[in-house]
Amino acid sequence: MAPPKSHALQTNMDVDYVISYRFAKTDKSTAISQFEKLVEALSSVGLQTEVRNGDNHSVLLFVRVASDEHLFGEVYRSRVRDWIHGVRTAAPARETRQALEAEPLYEAERLRIIYQLITHPVSEGGAGITPKEGEWKNVESIFALHDHAYNKDWIKKWSSSWKLQTEDLDDIRNRLGEKVAYYFAFTQSYFQFLMFPAAFGAAAWLLLGSFSPIYGIFSAAWCTIFTEWWRQQEVDLGIRWGVRGVSKIETKRREFQHEKVVSDPVTGEQIHVFPATKRLQRQLLQVPFALGAVCMLGALIATCFSIEVFISEIYTGPLKSVLVFLPTVILTTVMPVLTSVLTNFATQLTKFENHETEGAYQTALTQKIFVMNFITSYLPIFLTAFVYVPFGKIIVPYLDVFGLTVKPFAQNEKQLKAPTPGNFSINPGRLQKQVFYFTVTAQLVNLGTELIVPILKRKGFSKYKEMQSERTAKGAGATSSPTADDPAEDAEFLQRVRQEAELDVYDVTADLREMVLQFGYLSLFSVVWPLTAVSFLCFDWLELRTDAIKICVEMQRPIPWRADTIGPWLDSLSFLTWLGTLTTSALVYMFSNDGLGPDGHPASIRGWALLLSILFAEHIFLVFRWAVRIAISKIDSPGLQKEKRERYLVRKRYFDESISQLERLPKMAEKGREITRESLEEDARQASLHGSTPEQRFWARQRGWRETAAVGRGFIEKAPLEVQGRRGSDASGNWGNETKKEL
Amino acid sequence: MAPPKSHALQTNMDVDYVISYRFAKTDKSTAISQFEKLVEALSSVGLQTEVRNGDNHSVLLFVRVASDEHLFGEVYRSRVRDWIHGVRTAAPARETRQALEAEPLYEAERLRIIYQLITHPVSEGGAGITPKEGEWKNVESIFALHDHAYNKDWIKKWSSSWKLQTEDLDDIRNRLGEKVAYYFAFTQSYFQFLMFPAAFGAAAWLLLGSFSPIYGIFSAAWCTIFTEWWRQQEVDLGIRWGVRGVSKIETKRREFQHEKVVSDPVTGEQIHVFPATKRLQRQLLQVPFALGAVCMLGALIATCFSIEVFISEIYTGPLKSVLVFLPTVILTTVMPVLTSVLTNFATQLTKFENHETEGAYQTALTQKIFVMNFITSYLPIFLTAFVYVPFGKIIVPYLDVFGLTVKPFAQNEKQLKAPTPGNFSINPGRLQKQVFYFTVTAQLVNLGTELIVPILKRKGFSKYKEMQSERTAKGAGATSSPTADDPAEDAEFLQRVRQEAELDVYDVTADLREMVLQFGYLSLFSVVWPLTAVSFLCFDWLELRTDAIKICVEMQRPIPWRADTIGPWLDSLSFLTWLGTLTTSALVYMFSNDGLGPDGHPASIRGWALLLSILFAEHIFLVFRWAVRIAISKIDSPGLQKEKRERYLVRKRYFDESISQLERLPKMAEKGREITRESLEEDARQASLHGSTPEQRFWARQRGWRETAAVGRGFIEKAPLEVQGRRGSDASGNWGNETKKEL
Lengths: 743, 743
Hints:
Two copies of one chain form a homodimer. Chain A is mainly alpha-helical.
């Protein structure tokens, strides 16, 4: 047998999920009855349970599916739902075992189905457990256990390889679900695409310098191609992973408040309705919110910016070396507070908008967050590029509102020291320095905090919990350690589970946001410093690996949700690409002093020329994007091929069925029967019997195609033709029944 | 019995289709054998035939479905195909009669299915008759007979009603198919929407005058809302008529030339491939084509424009009153020739692009035609607005290239007569006059020719055919009239059919193009003359009625094709709306001389202000369009409701099925069995027998949810809580199997 330490990491004891039940803040009798209800609810949906003691006033409830039959039933149900929503092309086979053999269950699918079984409402066949909400507020978390053997291999493999293969992404999808896999796929694609601007940027930096129009065009084209390519790639991956269209399967938000219940006149289904107009009214609150956020964040950034410019470029008084850090101090203290207040406000606003589905809620929230992130990330550079540089000479001298440069010093030096619009000149290196800060320094800091902060947070939180329990324990007298009751055999395993229970929940959106914002620097400002892409290339190689480590070490195993897109972030990418053409063209024009252009000075920048560059660049971009979209849509990808193939098979089966049914129909009888006196008399009798209509008589003149052909031949032969003369004049060019009468 | 004349119009003799077989140019034996083949092919797919003599070397072959069973089989097959392609939500019932009772066949569907039965290739279950092509080049046309009773009612109803109801459109759809119905639905929607700009335009004309920014904003907003609304309405109508998604059912082009045949590795299907890169290369020829068309048409228009300006505004020589008509003469003679040459070239180019499907071919062709139409329709006004008005003062004096104003006259007056940039001034009314011409005069002329030209063409063509036959007859000697053989009873009916055989084929694209180009005048230039919409409102009321008359009287009954969109014209609408914001903002700025703005003179127009207006207007438009799109998508339309309902029903049925299957699974057994010494010994024996693994032992500690609940209760009670003290310290807070051992 393996040594206990490694054994604890090697087995998950067949546990599917662990439910952490915390009762520190509830009185015991309620806690006990709720716990009993919890166990019963889980049991009612076919889940087997085991309970163990947890850390600090919590118990750990281990859950697994009781029997294969139960699991298979759920899998079948989930697959039927997919089929109805068009995610699968073909209906799953009725015989579940057969279906599972044809298409084996992968780990993420299994975990997702079990998680849904635990959390779905009772009406939809689940146990209705909703962590931290309502009657289940004691259920602190529901999490699966890490597969340490796989995690170890994963990190080992990734840290030793330069490039990730599609198989690596498939692996992530199979283990952690499509949503996480989409993040890694996006980052990997982005990383690979980055090589082009990195190479071109390095060359441009050496040969062309900054603000090169050639680099600008290349950068805008690259952003467009990447965005459009990823749009297609999403579809392709969706097909590869069998999740195309899952974002259309709408999960209702539990928090959705309906205003009235309407019964559908046809289906009798009870529909919970919230008037769209009312929601629209509420959504209009976004406008003051956005304006407010812009003003508050903008004011903060502009203030710090002004202070910084003032102190570093005008101020010559005492403590300059210390005061230089004043804006940084203000930003790092006030900004997080302001951001968290605004984020909180955005969340409340989105909740107030009362979206019906989880998807709509997430999209609305993401959009608001993006606005805030946009301001905090890019506004400083915008201020430098489009306010400080062109108008700095005019504005900066007025920054000295308090007359700080003057007061404390000798009055007689006044005329010399105070800068006037005439003698102040802007610092031309500021823009490049700032871009360098955001694309290198800030990225480095970010990467560091991403790894360290969660560790500190976890340590602190666990300390807090310990203290809370200790305080409780002190009040209640001595107590035994929760681990005291552990059976020796499971002790190590339980210790590990208790640790995992304390970990943070992984939020893939935050990582995606980081990538999108990074893309923004590239599209908006890389023309200022063409080495931007080189820097990002290095960071992203690390980012992919540190994210893997983060998920494995610092986070609970993520619930394997499905996704078929990176969602609203794709729109953000499009927006940044579009805005990038505007900023790039403007920057290139404003700083094109190699030729005859202006040098960022207001005097030499011509309004019409600037606007014309922007207008021109934007329309070129729109046409180019349209062309790229069409070109990419024409490319046959393996995913699309797979889908076509599946559709063909379905189509073929149904056609074969329908055709076999058609074949049972009688073929057109060959009515070339012999014409005898009897049959003719019979026809005449039949006709008179039925009191025939003109229609019946019309269609009775020729019976069967042979008669029609014969009569037609008569017409044609009778017709006078130049070519052949009247060869067929004697043929029977008359009606079918006349022919018969002649017989 | 009714009098014969009206009787012939009242009955179609149950005829489904008439095939006109013309053999004037083939030798008789070939004609006869081909005719026999034709009749046999029709018979082989279950169609009954009757032949009658036609006019001038043609025979008329009447076709109807032989039996209901054959028709039902085809209907079922067609509906299954729809279902597979997602056009129908639910699969049609296997029992065809039942399915037809649930959802009766409408006339257009019946005719479409029979037409497809005649024309589809043999491999797809049709007779493979392809009019005018290959071996069927003698098959001149395949057409259904007009329903004269319905036509009469239709025209009567429409000419007496102000507004068309949705039911009227449903009626058209049931008779003439969705493609024609979409045209009428679009025109009717457009007509109804026109009331707003007509009312606002009239008010603006009275109160604000031309070039009003308020009218400009209204007009751009209206165009955007109408385009986006129609985009949604298309979907809605598609659902209402059960055709949503039919444009995705791709019909292969017969003319498609494959380069190689590839066998699909999975399905084994033979795929005919034409490399996409090669097609892309061929499509690039569009660029020189478009440039060529722009240059040729542009040169022609610019020349005529220059001549006109020159003669009417500079020239003072003899024959001025006659010479004024010179540009009109040039345009009306050269333009049609040039247009038809270019159209021909565009068709050849599109054929050369070798599209695989009919839809792709049509789209490619429509795009090319739109480019040409765009130039011929709008370039004259563009020249006036953006060349003549601002730069006229500079350019016009140089138009006198031949020195015509000077030479023939007294040399001494030279200095006085020749205009110089100084003394020439533009004609400010020219722009408005031109817009008036295009929006009133040209529309009137158009409406007239649309009714009269086909009549003349038909008369001429029938005369030509008569002459051709007469010539033939002269060469071959005397012949009897083709009507001589008609049975007296059918004579009138046959006469009518012969007339209908001579009629033109209705092309709905031409009518749609007319409407889209009209929309273009409104979006691009209506700010010049705000009464534009009033004029269009009147013309479109008439247009709807004359189109109805045209279809009923001057055209063969159209083959009832299906459609779920107006196709590429929708893109043209979007394009014109977008361009409209640019032209409107530019015109408003350039002619805003009520305030402090310029008056169309180059001196007072500032480049940056013009560009800023355009840039500003365009981005406001883009944001507005995005908002309108979102708002419209939120509106619940009856069509979308219907679709939701259908989907719900399908979903419910499958869920019920899957759930009934799940219910057969055994429910979680209640393992709260009595714990006895025997059962415990049995457990121990079982465990030792199986050589239990750690996992088995882990899950064996608690049996059934009741035990888990009991153990959990123990943990919770044992935990020290501030609130309650150690109330539960004596409870059995230990493992389940320990509990058992204690028994």
